[in-house]
Amino acid sequence: MASATKSTPLKLDLVFIPFIGPGHMIPMVDMARLFASHGVAVTIITTTHNSLVFKNAIDLDIKSGKPIKLHVLPFPFAEVGLPEGIENMNSVTSPDQNPKLYQATTLLIKPIQQMLLDHVPDCIVSDMFYPWTADFAAEIGISRIVFQGSSYFALCAQYSMRHNAPYENVTSDMELFVVPGLSDQVELTRLQLPDHVRTEKAFSAMLDLIREFELRSFGVLMNSFYELEQSYVDHFQNVIGRKTWHIGPVSLDSSTNDKYERGHNSVVDPHECLSWA
């Protein structure tokens, strides 16, 4: 009996919960598909219209025998005053719809929790914008891993800005200051900073909440690779003190056909990017 157990290892079962912004949703779905390609059982929680962005690719994965599936929830568009079909940042038709999208994500908490209670996985991989999943995962006795849609450099710079506030030591919006603690000398002016960094706003409080619940999570998954930003991976682990795994760029695991119609066209000429690289 013992030898049979050793020869049949248990298959890991992960649930991925992507955010409704395409810049988060697309790489996270690619990441989920990457796990499934290695034999991990994967369920992606999504909503009706968001599922259409990647349903064809997931169907192909299923046909090829990969253990992946979608769990599709109805989007509460009527409850928050949105037209049907407005389910992500790409589909909004006016700026006033963005807060309603965020409100809708809070209405999805209970159905997501119920799904996780009905089908308790080994681990939740959830977007940074779903900090509530950390405590819920602990409540049902599993781990939560955070998906961060940014780069290690950006996270290290944000951490330094939040803890050191170097922009408070300059006398004008145009005066340069150095972002302290980084391996490179990065100089900025106050005018280059987002509003939520310069002054306390609701988004500032949200980012603090995200960082707090990140500490309660098992670790951080990043769509990056060590050779790209080695010193900042090390800084994130050793100075900021986060457990992390860099498993990108995950888009390389998808076929060219999979990538069509997944998001808006790039505002930057791809040839310009290649030339810069």
Characterization of the model:
It holds the Pfam family Glyco_transf_N. It is a single chain. The protein has helices at residues 2-7, 22-37, 48-63, 97-107, 109-118, 132-139, 152-164, 195-198, 202-215, 230-238, 270-276, and strands at residues 13-17, 41-47, 68-73, 123-127, 143-148, 177-178, 187-188, 219-222, 244-246. The protein is globular, with a radius of gyration of 20 Å. The protein has a domain at 10-150 and 211-260: Glycogen Phosphorylase B (Rossmann fold, 3-Layer(aba) Sandwich). Helix 2 (22-37) links the parallel strand 1 (13-17) and strand 2 (41-47). The chain has eleven helices and nine strands. The N and C termini lie far apart (56 Å). The strands form two sheets. A seven-stranded parallel β-sheet has the order 3-2-1-4-5-8-9, sandwiched between helices. The chain is an alpha/beta fold and 277 residues long.
Blueprint of the fold:
Elements: H1 2-7, E1 13-17, H2 22-37, E2 41-47, H3 48-63, E3 68-73, H4 97-107, H5 109-118, E4 123-127, H6 132-139, E5 143-148, H7 152-164, E6 177-178, E7 187-188, H8 195-198, H9 202-215, E8 219-222, H10 230-238, E9 244-246, H11 270-276
Parallel strand pairs: 1-2, 1-4, 2-3, 4-5, 5-8, 8-9
Antiparallel strand pairs: 6-7
